[in-house]
Design goal:
Number of helices: 6
Number of strands: 0
Strand content: under 5%
Structural class: mainly alpha
Largest sheet: none
Helix content: over 70%
Shape: flat
Distance between the termini: 23 Å
Number of domains: 2
């Protein structure tokens, strides 16, 4: 069953790659039409204005609200497709890893506590990463989207901040916390 899943994920990866090529070509032509590098009255330009531009309207609205130029909508659509593809493949590979771990544990039930500890450490590292990334943006630590990461990591970050000084304006305590979590995992033999 896992071999079938791996084959499906590989097929999705190849499909996304070819779809990305098609999207890139469409976006390049749409950009050329929007910036008048292609005659706006020929058949290709009329086709893109009638068929592709309505699909770009949601992206164009977001760009206009952010103060950007509508001519850049095709490139932002391509970036959005790439991010979607990377996120989808990452999610599928993550689920494949979970399925594999569950298959191993179903064959060896004594490994279940180690699997749960491994998942707990992975979730703690994820919370630490969300905390760091959210600090780069104007997001409140009390926001419902990132508060959970602060709650899960405060017990580790706050004591480290009392011991480790700032390097200029850079707080390296999350990096130290990341390495401490890794050391604890290695010490107890948790994968």
């Amino acid at each position: 069953m896992l071999a079938t899943y791996v084959t499906v994920v590989a097929g999705v990866r190849v499909g996304l790659f070819y779809a990305g090529i098609v999207v890139a070509v469409i976006c390049a032509f749409d950009w050329a039409v929007r910036t008048r590098r292609i005659n706006p009255f020929n058949r290709v330009a009329r086709f893109f204005r009638g068929s592709v531009d309505p699909l770009m309207l949601p992206v164009e609205r977001v760009i206009l609200r952010a103060g950007g130029a509508p001519a850049s909508a095709p490139w932002w659509a391509l970036v959005a497709f790439a991010v979607f593809g990377i996120a989808l493949i990452s999610l599928l590979e993550f689920l494949g890893g979970v399925f594999y771990q569950l298959a191993v544990v179903s064959g060896q039930p004594s490994q279940a506590p180690m699997l749960l500890l491994s998942w707990a450490f992975a979730f703690l590292k994820l919370a630490l990463m969300v905390r760091v990334l959210s600090s780069w943006f104007p997001v409140s630590p009390y926001s419902k989207w990132v508060r959970w990461s602060y709650v899960l990591t405060d017990w580790l970050i706050k004591p480290l901040r009392r011991v480790i000084p700032l390097l200029g304006m850079i707080d390296i305590t999350p990096i130290v916390a990341w390495f401490l979590i890794g050391l604890i995992q290695k010490f107890f033999g948790i994968p």
